Amino acid sequence: MPSGPEEQTERPDPSIEEIEDAVVDGDRPLGAGTAISALRHRTFRIVFIGAFASNIGTWMQNVVLGAYAYDITHSSTFVGVIIFAQLGPALLLAMVGGLIADKVDRKKFLIVLSIEQLVFSLALAWVVRTPSPSHVVLVVMVVMVGVGSAMFGPAYSAILPGLVRRVDLPGAISLNSAQMNASRVIGPVIGGVAFHFIGPAWVFAGNAATYLFVVGALMMVSLPLAPRGSQHASRWRELTAGITTARADRVVGRCLVTVFVFSLLALALIGQMPVVAAHNLGIDPKSANYGLLYACFGTGALLGAISIGTVFSHTSKALMVRVCLLCYSVALTVFALLRAALPAYFIIALVGAFYFAFITALNTSLQTRLGDAVRGRVMALWIMGFGGTVALGNLLVGPVVSAVGITDVLLFGAVVALGLAWYADVRVPGEDSGVLEAVPAP
Predict the structure, then answer these.
(1) pLDDT at residue 107, as a whole number
(2) How confident is residue 188, by pLDDT bands cut at 50, 70 and 90?
(3) Which spans in 160-249 are helix H?
(4) 53, 55, 30: which is closest to 40 by C-alpha?
(5) Which of 98, 115, 190, 200 is the most exposed place for a label (fewest CB within 10 A)?
(6) Residues 441 and 227 sit within 8 Å (Cβ to Cβ)
(7) What is the CATH number of domain 33-223+233-423?
(8) pLDDT by residue (tens digit) across 239-272?
(9) pLDDT by residue (tens digit) across 292-320?
């Protein structure tokens, strides 16, 4: 099996896995670039399974955090504060995490960050064991979990291309999105039921335990070292290399602008789901039905994400970005106008499907344009847009929801998505065969 360009320079001798694949497949792997081809890489499989188990715990905690915040305050503003505490650190620390990921042993860095999140998830469980916890301490504990998550994201994204051949990267990205969204199905169901029967403290403690899976997976594998760049660049230039790369390449720039605007203005649904459930659909955020609603969203997201690496593996990702944005706009409009729970379970699945098909196609378009020397810092910008900006949007939208209602906010998001369907032209001029090294490696 021929290796990718980075493997040819860093590891000229074939690995045992490559030799086995060459013998079995006659040195002609089938379905290159698909989800199945990505799974043929042993290191990717192990990291994939560990991350999947950990993300189940993360989404157990995520779905319960919003519902718990609404249950103890009945305030959409406080829900926004909790979501910002959870995801907001990505706005400040993702670039730092990306820079560190490009400079240190990524495996050790990811293990340290996983342990940090484990510790503060346990602390969060301790805080909420009482009937009336301090809101300030609750927010601080959520922030500390968010700090580890903010720096983990860019580092994890940076190792992904090194786990597979470059030709299999689209399939790996699709599978990575799929496992995140399968966890959105499993985690909320477990979290919603557990929240109802045993309370939030045990949910948060369970999430803490799941970090051991990703730590164990990382300890079982060897990861490629981050490429060493120039030793003469200033610290500021090193930190802002991702921005420089985005300015130098139209595709990278439009991918990042699209995810920032979309996350800021079109994703109020994510943080305000308890408000939608309670006000529009008559679903108690503390009930198992709320967990089911979130699970339907996650099921759709799972199908949308995995479709990019399977059914649409050979379809233009640039085309998929625009089509899915258009369909997301329509589905969100329908969901905003619903006032009955039963059809909402089906429509929110469509919202999730188009949302994550769009995100996966956009991420694939971005990742295939990046060189390894700046990948961590560009992906830090992606994490800022994909996570941190969602938090900022929900912090700002909380008072707006209180003033005008959740329906108008969701309809505004649908209009924004429709506008982005026009803007998000991420087609690559000419042949899309090159790999971007837009700036000298710092």
Answers:
(1) 86
(2) confident
(3) 169-197, 200-220, 235-239, 241-248
(4) 30
(5) 115
(6) yes
(7) 1.20.1250.20
(8) 566 788 888 888 999 999 999 999 999 988 877 8
(9) 887 888 788 888 877 887 788 888 999 99
Confidence check: pLDDT of 22 > 60:
no
How is residue 424 written in tokens?
């998000």
CA quadruple 96, 98, 102, 107: dihedral, nearest 10: 100
Greatest extent of the chain over all pairs of C-alpha atoms, in Å: 65
Phi, psi of 436, rounded to the nearest 5 degrees: -70, 130
Instruction: Spell out the residues 6+ positions from residue 115 whose beta carbon is closer than 8 angstroms to its own.
Output: 211, 215
Neighbours of 333 (CB within 10 A): 18
pTM of model > 0.70: no
- Integer CA distances (angstroms), 37 to 1, 76, 318, 369, in order: 12, 44, 22, 20
CA 432 – CA 430 distance, rounded (Å): 6
CA 180 – CA 345 distance, rounded (Å): 20
Cβ contacts of residue 117 below 8 Å, gap of 6+? 145, 148, 149, 152, 208, 211
Q: b or e along 288-303 (b: 16 or more beta carbons within 10 Å of the residue's beta carbon)?
A: bbbbbbbbbbbbbbbb
The DSSP line for 342-373 is HHHHHHHHHHHHHHHHHHHHHHHHHHTTB-HH
Cα separations (Å) of 254 from 261, 318, 426, 430?
Answer: 11, 11, 6, 17
